[in-house]
Amino acid sequence: MRRVLVIGGGIAGLTAALSAARAGADATLLQVGQGAHHLFSGCVDVLTYPQADGEAVAQPLTALADLRDDHPYAKVGVEAVREALAEFKQIVGEQDLTYVGDGENQKRVLTAMGTFRHTALTPATMAIDPAEIDVVCGLAHFRNFAESMIAAELSRRIGRPVKTLLFTLEKGRRDAVGISSRLRREEEFSALAEFLAAEAKGATVALPAVLPVENAEAIKAQIEEHFGGRLVEVPGLPPSLAGLRLMKALRRAALDASVASVPNARAIGPVEENGRIVGINVQTGNVSRELRTDAIVLATGHLVGGGLVSARGRLREAVFGLPLRGWSRGPFFAERFLATEGHPVLQAGVPVDAHLHPVKDGGAVCRNLYACGDILAGFDPYRERSGGGVALSTGMVAGRLAARGES
Amino acid sequence: MKRKPITEPLRPDTMFDPCIKCTICVTACPVAQITDKFPGPKQAGPDAQRFRTRGEPAEGDWINLCTGCLRCQVDCPAEVPIAEINLYAKQRYAARKGRDVATHMLSHAHLISPWGVRFRWLAGLMLRWRLSRWFAEKLFGIDRQAPMPPFAKKRFRDVARDYRAKPAKRKVAYFYGCFTDCNDPAVGHAVLKLLEAAGVEVMFPEQQCCGAALIGSGNFAAARKQNEVNIPALQQAVDAGCEAIIVGSPSCALALSREAHDLLELDGDEVFNRVIDPLGYLSRLDEAGELNLRFRETKLFAAFHEACHLAALGWGMSAVPWLRRIPGATVRVLDAGCCGLAGTYGLKRKTAPFARAIGQNVADRIAQWEPDVVVSECEGCRMQLTHLSGVPAKHPAQILADALEETDK
After folding, report:
1. Which terminus of chain B, N or C, has fewer Cβ atoms within 10 Å?
2. For B129, how many CA atoms within 13 A lie in the half-sphere containing its CB?
3. What domains sit in chain A, N to C, each tagged with a CATH number?
4. What's the pTM?
5. Cβ–Cβ of B79/A33 closer than 8 Å?
């Protein structure tokens, strides 16, 4: 069996490992820490702002055709993106996590600022359009959600009044993690259901995204049944429970597909024989060892994920020291934090060929090395809002190519 | 292209520095999920450490609510040794306030267990009898509902002493640990059977308790004493040609590799780098093409539980692909977090209710799946999960040894 070693446990890495295993490879997933899912909303963006100064696109998959040749989407092609989104929905669906949307048309999600966010796929718990919301319900002592501000802005946008409510949980842990694990218990979520039945019977109610990590959809359905209305989660500040649900579902799918998960193991460099990479040196604390493999998928992410590291004003790819493109020297960041043109350093990445092999001087660095996700050159996931789709599509393609071992 | 690994451990006065306050550790912490009595790993660890470095006492009794599962540390993207910061804090807190009787007793179980084996009938009675458990709770603070392991008829130490190894090309040392020695020698026999089937010469170096429970209660000094015997003994085995040190329990393995180095500040890189779990070692031989183990058809649905300390070791779940080789066996990984027991945590009256609440998530998933057996390398997890779910739990080596096809040699 062909051994594929995936480095990085984010969405791209999990997808690559899963795709490699499904394609018949013996896949191992190496990771340090977690992916960055808990920092994101749990929605899957495909593409919203292809141009720095342009309008939001309404049809993400259609808009992919206009991207430059060096964009990761152009490397894998629109069909692969479409397939990756469908496959993703099916994979997480098998782990009791439902996603809505298909990337053809954008969906809208209410944000914790009361504004609307465009995205391709949303979790089922966020799948109600903001225009349908009647009530914004906050939680007392939960500081990351300002129901009055959200309701005021939402009301201004949809041109009708939006009511606010404040639910008080019994004494106990009141941060997102604590609330979400409390809502697992029936006495806690039925108190919320009772409250909504009294205050918002039959209404469409927006709530911070604090439904539990396990069984979120079932618990949401039970609450809805009780008050006869609909609940919709509003993504907010980290830690993102919806992001954790997404990670958990992908991780469990990978484990079910026989992916070997190796947490807490840092890839520190390649093991080379006759100019080929035959393994990876791995380190955990003070102990190191060698892992042998036939192919490697690099899914270590960008600066946030740790795939690229900065030292004395320079950038370096962390595991292999691969050549980077998109940024060489100069300031890392634009003057304004929310710069519409994006931050210069986020343009940097590993350039790849059509088979997702990292390239150097025009040729593949190594025939059994592939890269996917945020580490790729040619795009800015934050400015474009394209990180999720790139992770899923390049992850799927890299995993399959690595499993097949094309030359 | 090759980089030199960083081997210098960070010391407590600076090791919080890389923390970027991302809160991933809070989502990973099993204790933070179930109570507000513990401020969570970020506040208890790197946040409070900033005060501790200035000499201010920045911990209360809550520091003992940290289970030491290391999930925070494993999930930290900046590799801040959060759990280790907490262990140092526990040590400091104990230096100021002392330790309770339960913690003292349970972290010194290696001194008590041999007596349990000697007076097995009496000990068994005491552990089962409600009145004695009630007394133990009142007197020592040992939770009366907590799972307690039965004592073995014959210690594994005695088996090891009489063991005659067949000389072979590959030699390994087997560190079986206290629990296998006094409570569950079946694990030791299973590991031995697998290693023999692999044609490996097994040595038993002199061994004492690895000190994992002592480290967990912040008693580094006592743990160091244990390992000042263990590490040189294992070094001797290495010098005698042992290429691996097989450790069946993840917590022992952690104490004998990373913790001995980082927390106990002992030397022994040759030992630390050779510590490995039995099935990880067999995988290595298998990869080298030296192994031909065959398994009988066994109809079995096994739910594998990844012990927190196994995740911390960075080895992965080497047992899972082995279990999947058994024809007829279905193996699924539970992936439902920590079981809560955490060595002595789930046994003490003060913390046992938290331990049970933590383990409920795993227990729920087991109840949903209805497996024939729960499989985990960690004895604490096995005890707790059987206690919470009623499903028997075994070490993977036991399942594999049972299914092993006998070959004529």
Report:
1. C
2. 10
3. 3-102+244-404 (3.50.50.60), 112-234 (3.40.50)
4. 0.94
5. yes
